[in-house]
Amino acid sequence: MIVVMTVSAVEEEIRRVLSCIEARGLSALRMPGGDRVAVGIPSAIPPDLREPLYQALSVLPGVEHVAHVSRPYKLASREFHRSDTTIEIKGVCFGGQQIQIITGPCSVESTDQMEAAAEAAREAGATGLRGGAF
Fold first, then answer.
1. For residues 67 and 99, is the Cβ–Cβ distance under 8 A?
2. What is the pLDDT along the chain (134 residues), one digit of tens a residue?
3. Rounded to the nearest 10 degrees, what angle do helices 11-22 and 47-58 cross at?
4. Is residue 132 part of a domain?
5. Is residue 133 assigned to a domain?
6. Rounded to the nearest 5°, which phi and psi values hold at 127?
7. Domain residues for 106?
8. Does some domain include residue 36?
């Protein structure tokens, strides 16, 4: 379930939504956005609690709307996290617009095997971190 707050929602109204969820033994996840705050419930909501919770949240001040979410992987979904996730490792950005490809053996049994795999990747045109050759 996601509770979308109005653009003009104040901190006290957001806290009231968080308290309403937590009072029912559920976790509440505050998700600040560009111009408004949303509050998500990342865990499963017992069926007998879904509609009463929906009704209780819908009438709270500062709430724009409440949406049921029944998809798996809620924390990774666009409903819970609207922006792209990017991670930088040694100057290389993963998850952005540029596609990164990582190659190598599934397991390494010896130093010779690892060096042979790196040499084959280099000969095939692979580059190392920061755009340099292996």
1. no
2. 999 999 999 999 999 999 999 999 999 999 887 788 999 998 788 889 999 999 999 999 999 999 987 666 666 666 666 677 788 888 888 887 878 777 666 777 888 888 888 888 888 876 654 444 44
3. 160
4. no
5. no
6. -120, 155
7. 87-126
8. yes
Q: How many domains does the chain have?
A: 2
Kindly state whether residues 43 and 96 are assigned to the same domain: no
Which tokens go with 106? 């599934």
Tell me: do 93 and 116 sit in the same domain.
yes
Q: Which residues contact 132 (CB under 8 A, 6 or more apart)?
A: none
3-state secondary structure 17-73: HHHHHHCCCCCCEEEECCCCEEEECCCCCCHHHHHHHHHHHHCCCCEEEEECCCCCC
Residue type, 43: S
Q: Is residue 112 domain-shared with residue 48, that is, in the same domain?
A: no
